[in-house]
Amino acid sequence: MGKTKDLIPLKELNLTNRFLFDEVLEDPQTHQDILSIIFGRDIPLLEQNETEKELRVSPHLRAVRMDVYAMDEEKSVYNTEMQQKKRTDLAKRSRYYQSMIDAGLLEPGIPDYNQLNNSYIIIITPFDLFGYGRYVYTFRAGCLEEPDCCLEDGAVRIFLNTRGKNDGEVSKELVGFLRYVEDTTDEMAADMDSERIKRIHNRLRKVKASEEVGVKYMQAWEERYYDKEEARQEGLEEGRQEGREIGKQEGKQEAIKNLIRKKLKKGCSAEEIADILEEELGMIQGLIDEIEKENL
Q: Where are the alpha helices (DSSP H) in 147-210?
């Protein structure tokens, strides 16, 4: 019983939780509704809608795992991400995601780069990454010398902030949705005039009521718990054997490296491993680099 004291029940989760976010948006209609709210127009998605889609262009390069990946009828690609924890590398992370998506869009031998799909990286955060108080930050490549000149390369990155303050500059529906993301309750949904948000909430209620999803959530939580406990115990044991503080630190690091090896074999990304072990991404990436050098 003790180990579950930190487990937040599935029914109490908000959409800021990545597990719940992925489960809810696995439904194409729900993802379509959310994209339509964000862009202020209907986004007719194809039936294909993938969660936790892994992209890898080479066995020697690190893979990325997209939260929710979809394509619309005009072949534009959308990757929608939930980022609950504030990280300093989100801007460059979005750049890497963009490059990985682009690398997989053209078939070998196609000489015309105009056939490259338009693509949108959308990252939803419960914090203001840039500090200007906006709900939406949209980035397209522009020219420093000619501010009105935009590089029309079809690549767009959008950061959504649930705690924006410029209500008069964005749609009421978008403001309502972003507030709902952080307060995912029956009461909040009932106050909304948007039929799309009500559909999203109906989908969410079905997910939370699903016994199958409940089991999956518990299994995912237990895997995280035992991974962290294993790292802690292995680190303590090796530290005891060394009998010195430095030994404890080295023991903990080696235990974490062992867990990283296991997670890499399962296809986990550095970000996922950092989340599971509740360690800094930079430290995890450094250990991954060490492991890769050891394997050369």
A: 172-182, 186-190, 195-209
